[in-house]
Design goal:
Blueprint lengths: L1 H18 L3 H22 L20 H25 L4 H23 L3 H19 L5 H32 L7 H7 L5 H19 L7 H8 L2 H29 L2 H22 L6 H22 L2 H31 L10 H4 L1 H14 L6 H15 L3 H27 L22 H15 L3 H10 L4
């Protein structure tokens, strides 16, 4: 089954290159999304419907990456459905849309490889592949701002990838004569590693892959890239790419735990996590672009994941729950921002007024997404953040708990101020152009958000036993 989801994009490339039919673009994305979803659900249910295929030893499914793969599949399927309506509004040439399809398939393929890789070096290769694929997607509209965002993304992430490569080299020095980068071998032999070189390796890998994850202070590419990319791509960047990078950091952190260097790694994660929250709290009040606002919210939530990982135990459990909720809700938020952009033709917060009157469904999706990301009950993020606060109290980290709550409150107020103004304000901005006819959006541009929000709110009230068991197994060893 691993072979199936890794080889299908290659087959799709060949079909698209040979036949060059416009209808094949959406068909291949939708088909890959369905196959990806079915395979990931089969992994979650421990069903192997292709037992005769033996996967390459460089890829494997374990208790941790199973969660990441399932989240990616759900988000990708939602984005694929949304994309059907989105490309109807796109006036680009058929050739340009075909290139868009190529890169979407390559992007998801790279993230899938990064999640499923059982080798640290292979993970690094696929993380680099995500940079190459998503750079074109960020540049897709070919405007002055999009090319600037794409170059910034490539430049900063390439430096990050180079730092991570140095970290991997230092990891091989720390392992001595082990001569392997397979995670299982690294876990089993971690107590024998040289602590100095291992700690130095973690610094380089955390800063390098933290660049792709969007952790401060190496987050500078993220607001521009998310703001300029097409809305379906913004959803994938925030809800799946950042998770793929986070998984690599989690795997390296587990090596630190087994090696007895957990305290050192926890301090690094706490510093970058709180810095990410602080950066978001500072900038969220000075943003006039709602897609950039959502990008800074992603930085904040990546910081929360880092903090939960650093806390360990229940904190790590909360981080995995938070990852699930954030991916679903933020994907819904970005897709809904695409509806707003189609309706108003602007990304400026001040230019969007009376959203509920202009498009009631988009307006309520926008408000519901805010309620979810702000961790108001019954959002599943309320559960994850409550567990983190509880863990801080139990570990007697009263000061950082207070700081955590203050920064979250500031961010929620900043997001809420913009969302409420856009949705409920009846005033007309002077720069807003009157449209002679109302923009009509396809049903596929509403349903994916509704489904993801329903899932996020439902598991905030009741988490099925199968899912809760998967989450518990994913954090074993932390």
């Amino acid at each position: 089954m691993i072979n199936l989801i890794l080889l299908f994009p290659i087959l799709a490339f060949v079909i698209l290159a040979l036949f060059k039919k416009k209808f094949l673009n959406n068909l291949m994305i939708n088909l890959y999304a369905v196959i990806h979803f079915l395979v990931s659900m089969a992994f979650c249910l421990n069903i192997d419907f292709l037992p005769m295929w033996k996967p390459c030893r460089f890829f494997a499914v374990d208790d941790t990456n199973k969660i990441f793969l399932a989240v990616m599949s759900v988000v990708f399927l939602a984005v694929a459905v949304y994309n059907n309506g989105y490309v109807q509004k796109e006036t680009s040439l058929t050739k340009k849309l075909r290139h868009y399809t190529y890169m979407v398939l390559f992007f998801v393929f790279s993230m899938t490889g990064a999640v499923l890789s059982s080798n640290l070096g292979v993970s690094w290769v696929f993380i680099e592949g995500t940079t190459l694929a998503s750079a074109y997607l960020i540049y897709f509209h070919k405007t002055k701002h999009s090319i600037e965002a794409a170059w910034k993304y490539v430049f900063i992430c390439s430096i990050g990838i180079a730092l991570a490569f140095v970290g991997i080299i230092l990891m091989t020095v720390a392992t001595g004569n082990l001569n392997t980068l397979f995670y299982r071998d690294l876990y089993n032999n971690a107590p024998l590693f040289n602590h100095f070189w291992l700690q130095l390796s973690f610094v380089f890998i955390l800063f390098g892959i933290g660049t792709k994850m969007g952790l401060a202070p190496v987050h500078f590419w993220l607001p521009d890239a998310h703001a300029e990319a097409p809305s379906p791509i913004s959803a994938l960047l925030s809800a799946t790419l950042l998770n793929s990078a986070f998984l690599m950091i989690v795997n390296v952190f587990r090596i630190m735990v087994f090696a007895g260097c957990a305290d050192y790694a926890r301090i690094m994660l706490l510093v970058m996590g709180f810095l990410s929250l602080f950066i978001t709290a500072v900038f969220v009040y000075h943003i006039n672009n709602y897609k950039r606002m959502l990008a800074y919210s992603s930085i904040e939530n990546m910081g929360i994941l880092a903090i939960g990982t650093a806390l360990g135990g229940v904190g790590m459990l909360a981080a995995i729950i938070h990852l699930i909720g954030h991916s679903l809700i933020k994907a819904s938020f970005f897709l809904t921002s695409g509806n707003i952009l189609e309706t108003y033709g602007t990304k400026k917060i001040k230019a969007v007024t009376g959203l509920l009157k202009r498009d009631r469904r988009t307006g309520w999706l926008w408000v519901a997404s805010f309620v979810g990301i702000a961790a108001f009950p019954p959002s599943v993020l309320f559960v994850s953040e409550f567990l983190m606060v509880k863990t801080m109290f139990l570990q007697k980290h009263y000061l950082i708990c207070a700081l955590f709550l203050i920064l979250l409150t500031i961010v929620i107020y900043g997001l809420g101020k913009a969302v409420i103004r856009m949705a409920f304000s009846a005033e007309k901005d002077e720069n807003q152009e009157e449209t002679s006819e109302k923009v009509k959006l396809d049903w596929t541009m509403y349903v994916p958000q509704i489904v993801m929000l329903v899932i996020a709110f439902t598991i905030g009230i009741y988490m099925p036993q199968g899912l809760s068991q998967m989450v518990l197994m994913a954090v074993a060893g932390f």
